[in-house]
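Structure ticket #2291
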Amino acid sequence: MTPLTVAELLKEQRTRLKLELVTGEKATGRKVATADVNRPGLSMAGHLEHFRAERIQIIGRGEQAYCAKAPQKTLVAALSRMLGHPDLPCLIITRNLATPAALAQACRKYNVPLLRTSLDTAAFVGELSAYLETRLAPVTRVHGVLCDVYGLGVLIEGDSGIGKSECALELLKRGHILVSDDVVEIQKRRGGILLGSCPEPLKHYMEVRGLGIIDVKLLFGIGSILNASRIELVVYLQQWEPTTQYERVGMDLKTSKILDVEIPTVHIPVSPGRNLAVLIEVAALNQRLRGQGYVSALTFNQSLIERMKKPAK
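Resolution: structure written out below.
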């Protein structure tokens, strides 16, 4: 997970989210650890049993109205318990509402950043949550090639020199799309979705042994590259060995684990004369069928069983 501080949140989203710092400049090094946010209305009323201190606290019209009408002694006691948590990142007031005096005093006392935005509460929460989900998502990098084949993100892996880039080059010639060559940056999104992209310095470039670095966008056109793609299939290329038993039927679905997410995986042996690009195309189409609930091997097996049950004529 990429760490994020309140200072970085301000730097990266000040303009887009219309943020300004009201107080707590010296505390902007506090960490934001989760993409979820919290409306602390009940907590401000004293119900702190389930207060989520690790979340950014959003102060909207309801919270501001309560601060104006609540008994000050009760409010100050609740704010002291809330803001005393060391994990609390910051508070953000929406709609450019006036800052309640008790809230500002508590933030200064406990050294908690207090921010303000002019955006409506619902719109701000949606935009902030989307940003935090992307910014805080777990990330890893793998050695491989990511292509979009018939709308399916296919991650091609294998030992160095096995032919991953050459295979991707053939897929490009057949009209498919390159996302990343050599290094694939993978981000885990909500719902167990893996999104693959290319690190900035390598975007739309490919390294092919014997040719060197080529610019895919200039050679094949802007339609041949894609910034990111969901990874839905892993194809592992491995050197063919006469003594190795390879999959011949396809009854058992193998998977690979990336960031604790299981991804369907096929192993393709590499030998002279095999058209790997065509095999990957078929693997992608077959995986799309599997996603729709149709497994060719199981259907074929069932038809054989039904045939064997019929009495001989």
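Closing remark: The CA atoms of residues 66 and 132 lie 28 Å apart.
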